[in-house]
Amino acid sequence: MSGEAAPVGARARVALVLVSHSQRLAEGAVELSAQMAPGVLLLAAGGTDDGGLGTSYDRVSAALEEALGVADGVVVLADLGSAVMTVESVLDMEDGFDGRVRLADAPFVEGSVAAAVTAHGGGDVAEVLASAEHAGGTFAVAAGPPAGDGPTTEPTAPAAGAARAVVTLRNPLGLHARPAAVLARLVAGFDATVAIDGVNGASVLELMKLGATGGQELTVTGEGPQAADAVRAVVEAVEGGFGEV
Amino acid sequence: MTLDVAWADRWTRLSAERIAAARDELTELDRQIGDGDHGENLDRGFRAVVAKLDGSAGEEQPPGQIGDVLKLVATTLMSSVGGASGPLYGTAYLRAAKVTGLQELDAHGVVALLEGALEGITARGKAQVGEKTMVDAWQPAVDAAEAAADAGASTADVLAAAAAAARQGAAATVPLVATKGRASYLGERSAGHQDPGATSTAILLEAARDAATA
């Protein structure tokens, strides 16, 4: 068995297969990522055939085949060395499923969440893969030096034609995972580059890293053809409290 | 004496017996520097392999070639072992199977089989000699087999040379510091313990040797 699919809806082009030594860990990562990226096909391939700790060639290959039956491409995340080896073995045997399957070099949980949100935004395999692989750096920065040193978008003075707004976060719990994902998906839908307090508004992980709390003011800037619409939509979403307030 | 599919079948069943007998020893070695499941995992894998061999006996096409047996071992180990030794040995048997599309093996055929296995393990595990892994048993085994075959040894003697070199290689892992796999987390503390993967490699090659003279 290979976990449950996310709720049926508009399907993203890219599906994810999450491979863990633990069946429950794989299913948990699917659960967490699905909450932030509804409509993305997420399959868990965890544990051995008898449900013990370890990874199973058969479970991984079955999940990949199922995912490829629905999606254009698949990004795989794996949790520890031998899970990676099991995935590589499957890709070797199946000749990489014609290059439609890519294994991410990424932290399991953070990478899964980031990849799922990017897949939800309509990203292709390369974009979803890059999103997963960037996730580790985002968290290393979060745990290390203060924000500003990392690979985040530096705040820039609005250029001509760019949009800017300041909005107050109403959610008592702040910009936690779910609203961050809502915001990232919203931003990804516009032909614009949006920064929120200087970080990439399309990246759920960078938004969460802000650690924005209830009552805090957020500076929203946008550039690109749909900058004004994007900034307006972000302001509306924040003022609406993401349906939580 | 050339080696045929009956040898491959004997080798596989003997491997399962020897791994079962060494199960606790391998697990204890792995407890010292790994996650303590190598014996248990390999035993589970080889028991599944034998069950498949037994099950295939009544089928229309039981393994007819050495390569068929090796492929069956490969796919079964990959799906039933769980730990890293599953994909590592699985890939080894798979690559070994590629070079044995023959009904019978001569001495150089045995060398090609062992070389395929080593190539599979290094491709999957990316380890080199001296990193305290199964490569430390496989590489000397391949070298010894090659030298024996070049000197005109029989298939049984080529396997005997490989098995002896693997056993020595396994013993030589004791002072090494692991830089690959789970044992590398221990760093310097991994020294002083024999590598479980190199040890199981020696056991499998001794089974190959004994199956050739049975």
UniProtKB/TrEMBL annotation, chain B:
GO terms for cellular component: cytosol. Residues 6-210 form the DhaL domain. Gene3D superfamilies: 1.25.40.340. The keyword Magnesium does not apply. Signal peptide: none annotated. Keywords: Kinase, Transferase. SUPFAM superfamilies: DhaL-like. GO terms for biological process: glycerol catabolic process. It holds the Pfam family Dak2. InterPro entries: DhaK_L_YcgS (IPR012737), DhaL_dom (IPR004007), DhaL_dom_sf (IPR036117), Dihydroxyacetone_Kinase (IPR050861). One of its GO terms (molecular function) is glycerone kinase activity. This is Dihydroxyacetone kinase subunit L.
